[in-house]
Amino acid sequence: MPAQNAYVTLNNGVRMPILGFGVFQVPDEQTEQVVTDALAAGYRAIDTAASYGNEEAVGRAIAKSGIPREELFITTKMWIQHTGEATARREFDKSLRKLGLDYLDLYLIHQPLGDYYSSWHAMEKLYGEGLAKAIGVSNFYPDRLVDLIQHNDITPAVNQIEAHPFFQRADYQPLLREHGVQIESWGPFAEGKNELFTNPTLTKIGEGYGKSVAQVVLRWLIQRDIVVIPKSVRPERMAQNLDVFDFELAGDDMTAIAALDTGASAFFDHRDPAMVTWLGGRRVD
Ligand SMILES: NC(=O)c1ccc[n+]([C@@H]2O[C@H](COP(=O)([O-])OP(=O)(O)OC[C@H]3O[C@@H](n4cnc5c(N)ncnc54)[C@H](OP(=O)(O)O)[C@@H]3O)[C@@H](O)[C@H]2O)c1
Question: Which CATH number is 152's domain given?
Fold first, then answer.
């Protein structure tokens, strides 16, 4: 099945590509070309954020591509500094303007920090006005997610969280399913940490299918019904990362990958007070 035809259906009926393209840490000056290459390779879902500083460049690539708007699925995220009801609305308008769009497919609260309840109220209104086709959250641990769901009208359509072979989130997935929240992986390759790309288990499994480690990892996530948004600045890797719909990992390979879980982030703990302070103090334009 070509990547363009593989979707998940969110809790409000919106269809989201199960495989998209992320632009975190793509320098602003490189982003227009990188997104142009990604769209040419066949990606139709792009994941950015206000805090990535490259929304305008993403917007230029989208405009230049000539791809009909309805064929694209564009996600961006609101930074902590901009939480609050009025601020969230203003920042949404700013992101939309930078992206050159008149609606977003998915708008996410980037972190469960700051006055995000007020942001959520603003986002519920944006959703009601049709300006965001779906709204969701990112980096929400189970307690924060359940609390947000319990005290608001709209259940997030998506929770974008760290998920890769070393931090698999299998224990979290049933709760997300129970509430109808789609899990989306960030950092599917753990950004290469723990020597993921030369991991012996993943390498051996890949050899059995004639696939790379990257392809095995993406396929493994997709078979777990997890949306993936790998990032690469290289066209050959963009193509490779899309080419994961012509094989299926067998049960024993899924089990072997499950054994790689460390149960902990490969990056940092969102509940560490020092990290909360650092994130909360980070300023973006
Ligand atoms: N919500 C959040 O807090 C959050 C946090 C982090 C990320 N994200 C989102 O998730 C997306 C993906 O995560 P990520 O960018 O952090 O990391 P990632 O996708 O796990 O890893 C990207 C790294 O893998 C390399 N790579 C990509 N394809 C490869 C392949 N086929 N073979 C070998 N190396 C390959 C890339 O290098 P090259 O570019 O040189 O190819 C880059 O160094 C982000 O872009 C962003 O949209 C969200």
Answer: 3.20.20.100
pLDDT tens digits for the chain (285 residues)?
A: 555 569 999 999 999 999 999 999 999 999 999 999 999 999 999 999 999 999 999 999 999 999 999 999 999 999 999 988 999 999 999 999 999 999 999 999 999 999 999 999 999 999 999 999 999 999 999 999 999 999 999 999 999 999 999 999 999 999 999 999 999 999 999 999 999 999 999 999 999 999 999 999 999 999 999 999 999 999 999 999 999 999 999 999 999 999 999 999 999 988 899 999 999 999 998
Distance CA(96)–CA(187), nearest Å, equals 25
Q: Would you say the CB of residue 54 lies under 6 angstroms from ligand 1? A: no
Does residue 139 have its Cβ closer than 6 Å to ligand 1?
Answer: yes
Which amino acid is it at 195?
E
When divided into structural domains, the chain yields a total of: 1
Residue range(s) defining the domain that contains residue 53: 3-281
Q: What is the dihedral of CA 12, 17, 19, 22, to 10 degrees?
A: -80
For residue 52, indicate whether it is catalytic: yes
Supply the residue whose CA is at minimum distance from atom 24 of ligand 1: 191
pTM listed for this prediction: 0.97
Outline where DSSP puts E strands in 82-128. 106-109
